[in-house]
């Protein structure tokens, strides 16, 4: 009995430690949900600025470009210019707002100093990535749905392949959310973030076929456009509406998938090493 009792006592005394570890592990697994909820609340609390404003901007683009070019441009020989323009504006809004969500959140947290409260938590770099990119995807999809609701009345649109629409919207928003993470980690002030957006994101978005078909460009610019991953996101997204596109949707899916894998891997690596957030 004397040999058994110490062993039993040891087992009992070690049990609270195991319970503590289990609770910590469970907390780490649930932590991304809390951070995700916080990020969603961050943009939802100011939805007039983060959702309504981009929808209004897209509507103005449609009214101006649609009015000016409707009678002068036909795409794919059967699609009106306004109908062609709407999916491009929807996807452009998705991409720009997904990038803005993660990048603005990180830079604000760094400048105001409240990022330290996240660093004190036991959240892994994967939890950060999933929460920030997930909230960016949600914001992009909400803005895209809003743009669709206010613009769909201006043209007769049909969904030929809804699955392609959803796939490219989600993958595109995730890619731009990951790019926003990288930009937010790299930037140390708002000027640097604005430069990243104005000189990289904005040109690549506007030169991706939002307002035109690739086949209307000269040969040189057609070839150059094939190096722009934003073109494949918008072209694949547009395929879901019309069943036709400038390139194969499978090629677009492959390019977007590879780009997401590379950019996502870089973002996870920077989070893992604490790039510019741990001193």
TrEMBL record:
Q: Name one Pfam family in it.
A: ABC2_membrane
Record-linked PROSITE patterns:
ABC_TM2
- Mind telling me which residue stretches traverse the membrane in this protein? 46-69, 81-99, 111-130, 137-155, 161-187, 199-221, 250-271
Q: What's any one GO cellular component for it? A: ATP-binding cassette (ABC) transporter complex
Listed name of the protein = Transport permease protein
- Per UniProt, what is one GO molecular function of this protein? ABC-type transporter activity
Top-rank taxon: Bacteria
Main subcellular location of this protein, as a coarse class: membrane
Per UniProt, subcellular location reads as:
Cell inner membrane; Membrane
State the family named in the UniProt similarity comment for this chain.
Answer: Belongs to the ABC-2 integral membrane protein family.
- Keywords of the record: Cell membrane, Membrane, Transmembrane, Transmembrane helix, Transport
Task: Please give, as recorded in its UniProt entry, the membrane topology of this protein.
Answer: Multi-pass membrane protein
Q: Which organism is it from?
A: Hylemonella gracilis ATCC 19624
């Amino acid at each position: 009995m004397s040999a058994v009792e110490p062993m039993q006592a040891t087992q009992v005394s070690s049990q609270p430690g195991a319970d503590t570890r289990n609770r910590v592990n469970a907390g780490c697994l649930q932590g991304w949900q809390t951070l995700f909820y916080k990020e969603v609340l961050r943009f939802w609390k100011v939805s007039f600025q983060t959702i309504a404003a981009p929808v209004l901007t897209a509507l103005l683009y449609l009214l101006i470009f649609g009015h000016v070019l409707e009678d002068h441009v036909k795409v794919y020989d059967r699609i009106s210019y306004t109908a062609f323009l709407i999916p491009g504006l929807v996807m452009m809004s998705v991409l720009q707002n997904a990038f803005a969500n993660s990048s603005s959140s990180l830079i604000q947290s760094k400048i105001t100093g409240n990022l330290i409260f996240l660093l004190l938590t036991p959240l892994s770099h994967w939890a950060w990535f999933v929460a920030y990119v997930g909230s960016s995807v949600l914001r992009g999809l909400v803005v895209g749905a809003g743009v669709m609701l206010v613009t769909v009345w201006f043209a007769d649109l049909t969904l030929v392949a809804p699955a392609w629409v959803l796939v490219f919207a989600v993958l595109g928003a995730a890619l731009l959310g990951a790019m926003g993470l990288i930009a937010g980690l790299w930037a140390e002030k708002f000027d640097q973030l604005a430069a990243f957006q104005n000189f990289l994101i904005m040109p690549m978005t506007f030169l991706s076929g939002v307002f035109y078909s690739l086949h209307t460009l000269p040969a040189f610019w057609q070839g150059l456009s094939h190096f722009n991953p934003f073109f494949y996101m918008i072209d694949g997204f547009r395929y879901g509406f019309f069943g036709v596109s400038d390139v194969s949707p499978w090629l677009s899916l492959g390019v977007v998938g590879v780009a997401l894998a590379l950019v996502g891997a870089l973002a996870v690596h920077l989070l893992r090493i604490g790039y510019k957030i741990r001193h």
